[in-house]
Amino acid sequence: MRILIDTNVILDVLLKREPFCKAAIEVLGLTKLNNVQEYVSASAITDIYYLACRQLKNKELARGLLKKLLTLVSVAGVSEQEINEALELEWNDFEDSVQYSVAFL
Nearest CA to 40 among 80, 84, 74? Predict the structure, then answer.
């Protein structure tokens, strides 16, 4: 099974955001199951880095957290095809429409 993890789930873990941190850790823990592969979209990685740096005020720490994250999850590409699909959805939240398109294409 392949799972695309949302930006906020990752941030909940990396930044230890309560009350969601425990549940988010459980979601990331699914990678321990043999048939589960977890992904984060390439566009989410830049958002995660930016927000982690802003909150932690430490670029090296944010980089280190991303490196650890990438030992658990793979990066799903975002191409022109996914962006065009997201634009066609006409959702209010464009980031969500991109994530949806990445997950299904």
Answer: 74
Q: How far apart are CA 23 and CA 11, in angstroms?
A: 12
> How far apart are alpha carbons 85 and 105 in whole angstroms?
9
H helices, E strands: number in the chain = 6, 3
C-beta neighbour count of 42 within 10 angstroms: 14
> What does the pLDDT look like over 21-74, one tens digit per residue?
999 999 999 988 878 999 999 999 999 999 999 999 999 999 999 999 999 999
Residue 90's identity, in one-letter code, is E
Sign of CA dihedral 38, 43, 49, 51: negative
